[in-house]
Specification:
heterodimer, A: alpha/beta, Rossmann fold, 2 domains, globular, B: mainly alpha, ABC transporter involved in vitamin B12 uptake, BtuC
Amino acid sequence: MSKLSVRKTVSMWAAAVLGFAVSFSAFAADPLKVGFVYVSPIGDAGWTYQHDQGRKAMEGALGDKVETKFIESVPEGGEAERVIRQFASDGYDLVFTTSFGYMNPTIKVAKQFPDVVFEHATGYKTAGNVGNYVARFYEARYLTGVVAGHMTESNTAGYVAAFPIPEVLRGINAFTLGMRSVNPDAQVKVIWVNSWFDPGREREAADVLISQGADVVTHHTDSTAAVQAAEDAGVWSVGYHSDMSKYGPERHLTAATHHWGGYYTKTAREVINGAWESTRVWGGLAEGMVSIAPLNDEVPADVAKQVEGVTAAIKDGGFHPFQGPIKDQGGEVAVPEGKTMTDEELSTMEWYVEGVLGKLPK
Amino acid sequence: MWLKIEARPAPSVRMKYLSPLIAVALTLMTGVIFSAFMSLNPLNTFHAFFISPIDDWYGLGELGVNAIPLVLIGTGLAIGFRSNVWNIGAEGQLAMGAIFGGGVALYFYEQEGAYVLPLMFVMGALGGMFWASIPAFLRTRFNTNEILVSLMLNYVAILILSYLVHDLWRDPDGFNFPESRLFSESSTLPIVLEGTRLHFGVVIALGAVALAWVFVRKSFLGYQMQVAGMANAAALYAGFKRKRMVWVGLLSGGLAAGVAGLMEVAGPIGQLLPSVSPGYGYAAIIVAFVGRLHPFGILLAGLLMSLLYLGGESAQMDLGLPSAVTGVFQGMLLFYLLAADLFINFRMRRDTAGSRVAGAGL
């Protein structure tokens, strides 16, 4: 080997090593690109707002290891597939699709981009690169029910609800069970507004419930209208999704709140470390995915103490909101003593527990 | 200084066709000023809005996917609009088309057969026409206002669709979530451009444009309807049958919207959902007017409107603009068009004291 060629070889190797090092360091410094698809505008409170809080919490926790972007107000249906695909084809590594209606589009796009990780909220389908996550909102609902059961004087709560699907029914039932666990005479009136977001109709429904004697109003819809209606009428309210106390500074008792930050951070970390696997996650109080907002000052200390106790019991598995005995609306035993509803049964729930007034729309 | 608006002796024909272009130019200019205010580079904004959504085949396909319902419905509506028959109910007629056509797909679930798709088209068309026939009947029989009736029926149709996907047609394996089964292969539209979502509907939409042109230009009824639109008294004097025009005007819109709805569920969506359109039925009204109620104009206007939808998404993604920006652009476009149209028929003059009273009549 001539001297020249040795030098050439050495320099070639040096260049290769250098090149590798450069590309490696570029690789290491490259942040994980994370996309979020939101179904509604972020606003100041509500479903999408909580997801965006989660996104920010993840950014806060992981700093420059992640780079995030979101698209809001993406309608469920034909549009969603394009937006999800856009993230994937723009080189995003992880995409969170945060509404039920994105399930089939997410699965479709995921097939075309096997190297991208997708996480879909609230659905039931998964794939090799599609995980699924949702929270046990009903656990927080039960706790707010306990508070409401203590605070009501008319023994009647009003519930403004969106659509009669298992998700919403679980919430109504858990709230009712929570109320009746401390106040066996309590009843819950439900009005269906057939929309996730319609402040006008939500307000109207809340006003009707109040005029029918409800002195605690809660809701499973996306606006703050019910909380505001209660504030104006001088009755208690229980918020949902977000702490809504600023919309009901006097009368907001508490709220069943969602917290996605921990899950988003954990998932992003797993993807960065190459440890991510497709799973179905249904996390509750114990996982920090749901919680309740700080209690109103008017709530007596012993009630607060009791709520803490129930929270701890749910967290350590000592208590389940849907453990028997539970009677259905007609007074028949639906869950016998000693039994607890399975996740499968919970995810297909289609009946009211005892204490809910009115007929379930069919 | 006072200005007054007075009628022009003879409206300019050239300006009639130029005014949409002027409106587009003004919209762009306002967009540039806006982005300067938000300290964005106007060139980047322009690129994000109008270039980057369609800089590859997939993007062009998406342009088509969105334009198909807009062009098709706009063409159908324009036939009525030309004779002053105001069908504002395309959104509901679209939903009815989706219900009738989608119902066929669910009935023949997992049955392979070349007859399924054509049958879906027929039923989709009938569904849309059926829904449009209600305002047509009420108008011709009882002289009810078709604007109000057709608009109100939108909500009825959408609620019927919502009922069906929440109940009768709900996916039995779907954990009670409100959506139908995914249509089987034989009930979905073929893709015409590999690697995109551009489906067979593009042929239908272009065919409708050609057909409408022939109807408007070559048929006696088309001529009658145009005369009625320009001078109703003259049309009545000539003995043209007003009732027939009302029927044709409403049914053509219903037919187009019904087929468009069917093609949405059999195309990009692939199943029935509680919501099958992000407001195509309303946007098509703007498309019809921006396109001067002329079939070829509507084709161009539909493409422009579709680009605004896509541009809004990519502006969110590239520049972090809020989703409302799409609505802002659409609204500006219509606003400038109406403003420009005013000056086709009217002009502004500096007012002198004597003529101010005459000008105040407008």
